[in-house]
Specification:
Layout (H helix, E strand, L loop, with lengths): L1 E5 L7 H4 L6 H16 L1 E4 L3 H13 L4 E6 L13 E5 L19 H7 L2 E4 L2 H11 L5 E3 L5 H4 L15 E11 L19 H5 L1 H4 L3 H18 L3 H5 L15 E7 L2 E7 L8 H11 L6 E7 L8 H11 L5 E6 L4 H9 L3 E3 L9 H8 L4 E4 L13 E4 L1 E6 L11 E6 L1 H17 L1 H19 L1 H27 L1
Parallel strand pairs: 1-2, 1-3, 3-4, 4-5, 5-6, 9-10, 9-12, 10-11, 12-13, 13-14
Antiparallel strand pairs: 7-8, 7-11, 15-16
Length: 479
C-alpha cells in the first residue's frame, strides 16, 4: 500500500506557526508517521496536483493508494481522484453542519460525503461523525502512537517526586515570578489621575470615556512594562526579567526544586483555561515556597499574553510559590528535559481533541492533574491522575464565526482544581508509594493505548478495509 500524506504546517514553518490555527496538526502528523510507516510506504506531498499525479502513477503499477489529509475536515480537498481520508482531532460531541461564509466545506457532512472516510483521534469525535453521517460511515477512533518516544524516560521503579538538583537549559524568554517584585500597587501607582471636576461633570461635558479609558490603559501598560523590581536592582537573575523581554532570546539555565507542576499550552486558545491554572495554583500555595508551576507557552508572539500574565500575577501577589513561564521553541531533547524536571502535568481544559502534551507526560510516567471529559475519557482515570470536577455548559464550535451555541463544553470546577493541587503536593511530599504507583500506571496505560504496533494494527485494519470496499464498489460500477 502507498500512503500519500500532507499537512499545511511543516518542519520549515512550525516555529513561526506556534499558536496559530491548526499548528498542532504538524505534531499530529509527526506522531502518526512511525505507525503509518509500519504498514505502508509513506510519501509526503505538498499540493493536490501531486496527489492525483502520484495516485495515477502507483495505481498503474498495481498499488493500492490512499491520501491522508492531516487537517480539519473544512480544509480537506473533496475533488481528488485519489481516495482521501481526513485525520483530525475534534473536541466536541457534534460536528459543524452549516456552510457559513459561503464555503460548503464548513458543513462537515459535505466533506464526509465526498471523501473515502475519516480517522478521528477520540471515541467521542468518531461518534460525532457517525451521528452526522450514519452508523455505517467509515470512521475510526485511533490515538497518536507516541508512547515509544517517551517510554524510556521513566526509571524502572517509577519516578520519585521532589527530585533534587533539577535544571533545564533554554533559549528564549523567561518570566520568573520571584524576580518580578510583584505587587497590586504597581498596577495603579503610575497611572495618571484626571482632575476631580472631570469625573464629576463628565456626563454634562461630553467627555469621550472610551478614548479616556483607552488612554489610561496605555499609560498603565507602559508603566507596568517599565517598572523595575526591587530585587532586580540588587542582583542579576539567571533568567531575564520581564522588563528585558522584547530583546532577542537569551540562553538561560533554569533550576527548580520542590514539587513541580507543568502545563504546555497555547495562551490564545481559550479552551486551555490557563488563567484558572495560574490562579488556582497561586491560591493553593500562597504560603508554600517549594511549589513551582511551569507554563510552556506555545505561541509565536510573547506580547500576545505578556501584559495579561503580569497583570494576573500582580493581582494575585503576594504569594510564596513560584510561577515560571517559558516562551520559545523547545527541541526534542529540551522537551524531554522539561518532562524530567516535572512531577505532575496540569490540564484544565474545557474540551480536548486529544491533548498530545498530557499523553506525552503520561507516557513518560508523570501523573496528571486534569478533568476527565471529551478525548481524555479514552485514557484518563483516577489511577493515573487527580481528576478535577467539571460540568457541562453550552458552547460554540471553535471556528464558527457566528458564535452561536450549538454544542457543549465543560466548565471546570475551580475549587476542585485548587484542592487537586494541594492533594498532588501532599502525595508528592508524604506518600511517595502512591506517587510511584500512579507513575507506573500512567506509563502502562499509554503503552496499551498509544504504542506504535497497537496503532499500526488499527490503521492497517481500517485502511485495508476501506480500500477493499472502494475496489469492490469500483468493480461493481464497471460491471
Amino acid at each position: 500500500m502507498i500512503i500519500l500524506i500532507s499537512s499545511k504546517i511543516t518542519q520549515s514553518n512550525i516555529q513561526a506557526s506556534l499558536g496559530k490555527a491548526e499548528y498542532s496538526y504538524y505534531f499530529l502528523l509527526k506522531e502518526f508517521m512511525p505507525a503509518l510507516q509500519q504498514i505502508a510506504e509513506v510519501i509526503g506531498v505538498e499540493s493536490a496536483d501531486q496527489v492525483d499525479r502520484l495516485y495515477q502513477q502507483y495505481r498503474e503499477a498495481g498499488e493500492q493508494v490512499v491520501f491522508i489529509s492531516v487537517s480539519p475536515p473544512q480544509q480537506t480537498s473533496t475533488d481528488l481522484a485519489c481516495p482521501t481520508v481526513c485525520l483530525f482531532a475534534w473536541e466536541f460531541d457534534n460536528v459543524p453542519d452549516e456552510p457559513w461564509e459561503g464555503e460548503p466545506r464548513n458543513d462537515w457532512r459535505y466533506v464526509m460525503q465526498r471523501i473515502a472516510g475519516a480517522i478521528a483521534c477520540s471515541q467521542e469525535s468518531a461518534e460525532a461523525v457517525r451521528k452526522a453521517m450514519g452508523g455505517n460511515y467509515p470512521v475510526v477512533a485511533i490515538p497518536a502512537p507516541l508512547w515509544p518516544r517517551f517510554q524510556t524516560l521513566m526509571p524502572e521503579s517509577g519516578w520519585l517526586p521532589r527530585q533534587p538538583e533539577r535544571s533545564i537549559e533554554f533559549t528564549g524568554h523567561v518570566i520568573d515570578s520571584p524576580v518580578l517584585g510583584l505587587s497590586a500597587d504597581g498596577l495603579v501607582q503610575h497611572m495618571p489621575r484626571p482632575p476631580l471636576p472631570l469625573l464629576t461633570t463628565a456626563a454634562n461635558t461630553g467627555v469621550n470615556w472610551v478614548g479616556h479609558t483607552r488612554a489610561l490603559y496605555r499609560a498603565w501598560r507602559e508603566a507596568l512594562h517599565n517598572r523595575p523590581s526591587a530585587r532586580a536592582r540588587r542582583e542579576k537573575p539567571t533568567a531575564p526579567q520581564h522588563n528585558e523581554i522584547g530583546a532577542k532570546p537569551q540562553e538561560c539555565r533554569i533550576e527548580v526544586s520542590g514539587v513541580v507542576f507543568t502545563s504546555v499550552l497555547n495562551p490564545r486558545d481559550g479552551r486551555k483555561n490557563w488563567i484558572d491554572i495560574v490562579t488556582a495554583f497561586c491560591w493553593a500555595f500562597a504560603d508554600t515556597t517549594d511549589a513551582t508551576l511551569i507554563l510552556k507557552m506555545t505561541h509565536h508572539d510573547l506580547e500576545y499574553y505578556r501584559i495579561p500574565l503580569l497583570t494576573l500575577l500582580s493581582r494575585l501577589a503576594p504569594f510564596k510559590c513560584r510561577v515560571l513561564v517559558l516562551h520559545g521553541f523547545l527541541d526534542d531533547q529540551q522537551y524531554r528535559e522539561l518532562i524530567q524536571i516535572s512531577d505532575f502535568y496540569v490540564n484544565a481544559s474545557t474540551c480536548e481533541g486529544l491533548c498530545l502534551p498530557l499523553m506525552e507526560f503520561l507516557a513518560s510516567g508523570k501523573p496528571a492533574l486534569a478533568p476527565r471529559h471529551t478525548a481524555m475519557l479514552d485514557y484518563l482515570d483516577e489511577q493515573i491522575a487527580y481528576v478535577v470536577k467539571a460540568t457541562v455548559e453550552p458552547s460554540c464550535w471553535a471556528h464558527d464565526p457566528c458564535g452561536i451555541f450549538r454544542t457543549r463544553k465543560y466548565r471546570l470546577n475551580w475549587q476542585s482544581l485548587m484542592e487537586g493541587y494541594r492533594e498532588c503536593y501532599r502525595i508528592a511530599s508524604d506518600d511517595v508509594e502512591s506517587y510511584q504507583r500512579m507513575s507506573r500506571h500512567a506509563w502502562q496505560r499509554m503503552c496499551e493505548f498509544a504504542d506504535t504496533p497497537v496503532v499500526a494494527e488499527q490503521l492497517q485494519d481500517f485502511l485495508q478495509g476501506l480500500t477493499q470496499s472502494l475496489d469492490r464498489r469500483l468493480a461493481g460500477a464497471q460491471a
